[in-house]
Specification:
Length: 194
């Protein structure tokens, strides 16, 4: 990283003109950076916006990789993310799950019903208010997540073997930052809002 912050490869500092936008020769990272640079976003300096654009583009690519790594199970990414949320955070109300996963409450109600029908979650009374129901992951739900993670880890190991030791070390060094980014979203649900 240079002293000005992250920049997409091939974009020299100060070169944020709009001519290349019209040429169609930009990669996704460069296009995102230039779009951010030309937008009227007074809240962050250009270096922070460039980093945000690079991270967002990288996450987009990682989502595609994540889908490829995940074994077929008949569950959507939202369903598996909901199970992982319940595994990490314990039982939650439907409204909290819907907000956390970025879906409507009716959509989450339908999803939880399907997960319950397959034995991956169940509904239990809220210990603080018996009139309220919480959703919790079952032992089968935990086992399914563990199986999916094991397959993904095996597939990632194959990909890591193709990388150089420096690239592997860079990924290892990035793990705490990736975790901090995920935790920042969990701590501030408004960050996830469009």
């Amino acid at each position: 990283m240079n002293s000005a912050g992250w920049r997409p490869e091939g974009v020299p500092p100060g070169d944020l003109g709009s001519d290349d936008l019209r040429s169609g020769d930009l990669g996704a990272d460069e296009l995102a950076l230039r779009t951010l640079a030309s937008a009227d976003l007074p809240s962050a300096p250009l270096a922070e916006r460039a980093l945000a654009a690079g991270v967002a583009a990288g996450l987009e690519r990682l989502i595609g990789l994540f889908r490829w790594l995940s074994p077929p199970s008949g569950l959507s990414l939202t369903a598996t993310a909901t199970l992982a949320t319940l595994e990490r955070g314990g039982p939650r109300r439907l409204t909290a799950l819907a907000a956390r996963e970025g879906v409507t409450q009716p959509a989450m109600t339908q999803l939880v019903a399907r997960l319950q029908d397959t034995g991956l979650v169940d509904r239990v009374p809220d210990p603080a208010d018996g009139r309220v129901v919480q959703v919790r992951i079952t032992a089968e739900g935990r086992a399914m997540l563990a199986r999916r993670r094991a397959v993904r880890a095996e597939r990632v190991a194959g990909l890591l073997a193709r990388l150089s030791p420096d690239e592997q070390a860079a990924l290892a060094a990035a793990l705490p930052a990736m975790d901090a980014l995920a935790n920042a979203q969990r701590d501030d649900p408004l960050v996830a809002q469009p």
